[in-house]
Amino acid sequence: MRKEEKRARRNANAVKRRIALWLTLLTVLLTILLLVYLLVISDAVANKTARSELIRVLRENAAHVVMRDGRLQVGGDFRYSYGSITALIYSRGEALLAGQIPVGYGATLPFENGVIRTVGEETKYLVLDLWVPSDWENGVWLRGITVAPDLVAVKSNMVFWTMLTLPLFAILAAYGAYWISCRAFRPLSRIHDAAEAINEARDLKGRIGLPAGEDEFSRLAATFDGMFERLERSFEAEKRFASDAAHELRTPVAVIKGACEYAARYGEGETPDERRETMEMIHRQANRMARLTEGLLHMTRMEQGSEGGELCRLDLGAEVSAICAETYARDTHLSVRTEGDVFVCADRDLLTRLLCNLIGNAIKYSDPPEHAAVTVTVERGEGEALLAVSDSGIGIPPEAHERIWQRFTRLDTARADGESTGLGLAIVRGIAERFGGYMTLESEVGVGSTFTLHLPLL
Ligand code: ADP
Asked: What is the residue with the minimal CA distance to atom 8 of ligand 1?
């Protein structure tokens, strides 16, 4: 295992340990907080319960104290004792009429209607008096006595057990958190391992391949896989481009080299006509190389976005008319029809190159080129501007409609020999995309072709 790898694994473990530590601390803190809360509220809850019980029992008992035949009668449902509550009946003069004072209760307390009081030294009692009016001596006192809840023992028990089980909780929390984070981090390790393998093997074909899901790791892995996919494609395209370019340049270089070697060896005996022919051949091949390198340069700049200036608002009809008039002034076979007020976002130089490439092809691939009839039209389509270049040339077979946009594609090598680089339409498509538009082609073999640039209207 390499040094960085070890460090990465150590760091990942450090994160897991940190998560475990945090969760443990949180568990301990929460348990302590819960304990404190319970200790605080338990008194209040127990007191409240005892008081409401006392009130309820005494009120119910009051309903069973009645006058019958001029005498005070206590109904059978009167509860002298209920749980820890003891009920007593006193006369107006505070003499005990019925009930038994609980053992241990020694307090002498004057009667006070409807107020709960706490009395007693060691054992605390809650005492509630109720005045029950009646015809007998105007009424009687009901007294309820109950032992005030004492939670000291319960509380110390609670603290004891909590303190005893807390370390166990902490260990469980630490172990659980560590286990969960190990499981949660497993996909991340997989992502790391896959990325590492791709990096080491320098093979962009590898993928992380986590099963699709909605969680963060699945999405991260999918993003990485998408990135590897795009990288692989652009890497392949670069490789293809370099090998295509080398292949294209090899032929003219070989021809020039051969001609030079021949001239060096047999030049002495050559007639002036033969020498001129050799020189013309070298010149043609040099021109071809120049066109190729120029085309490649345009393409590279286009891909980098550095070709042409800032895009600006152009009147497409006016621009196309001007470019055609300037470039093809003496060409009688070119007819231009433009609609006014078709505004687009474009660059004049790039538009000129696009148009020249299309018109050049239309002439080159007409039969014969001298009789080419080319029409350039600018019109407003449905929400878009259309610039079409039509010819009545040799046409393009349907199976090649997609292929001709790829660089170095040449269908009719015999016809375009020397002139042709196979880069023209790739550059045209690049320019169309740069303008935010796209190209379409309609063509029939032997009838002609129409290349159309579609641009968003301004
Ligand atoms: P080049 O013209 O340098 O070969 P292009 O990229 O401009 O490269 O064109 C690619 C190929 O598409 C040409 O070789 C030719 O076979 C075909 N092509 C382009 N324009 C036309 C056209 N107007 N009519 C017929 N074929 C065409």
From this structure: 422
Residue 32: count of CB within 10 angstroms of its CB:
13
pTM of the model: 0.56
User: How confident is the model at residue 435, as a pLDDT?
Assistant: 94
Q: Which atom of ligand 1 is nearest to the CA of 295?
A: 3
The ligand 1 atom nearest the CA atom of 362? 23
List the structure tokens of 211.
Answer: 């099963």
List all residues whose CB is within 6 A of at least one atom of ligand 1.
357, 361-362, 365, 391, 393-396, 404, 409-412, 416, 420-426, 449
Q: What angle do CA 430, 431, 435 make, to 5 degrees?
A: 120
From the CA of 410, give the closest atom in ligand 1. Answer: 14
422 CA distance to ligand 1 middle (Å) = 7
d(CA 155, CA 144): 27
Angstrom distance (rounded) from CA 411 to CA 423: 12
Residues found in the chain: 458
For 267, the token pair is: 């030049």
Distance (Å) from CA 361 to ligand 1 centroid: 6
Rg (CA), the chain: 50
Q: Give the number of other Cβ atoms within 10 Å of residue 298's Cβ.
A: 21
pLDDT tens for 122-179 read 888 999 999 988 777 788 999 999 998 887 888 888 899 989 998 898 899 889 988 9
One-letter amino acid identity for 327?
Answer: T
CA distance 381 to 385: 6
Which one-letter DSSP state was computed for residue 211? P
Residue nearest ligand 1's atom 16 by CA: 411
Q: Which amino acid, one-letter code, is at 438?
A: Y
Contacts 24+ apart (CB under 8 A), 413-420: 415/364, 415/365, 416/364, 416/365, 418/284, 418/287, 418/288, 419/291, 419/364, 420/364
Closest residue to atom 13 of ligand 1, CA basis = 410
Pocket test residue of 404, 428, 440, 445 for ligand 1, highest count of atoms within 8 A of CB: 404
Residue 82's nearest CA partner among 61, 107, 111 is 61
Which atom of ligand 1 is the closest one to the Cα of 407?
Answer: 6
Tokens of 30: 């929460």
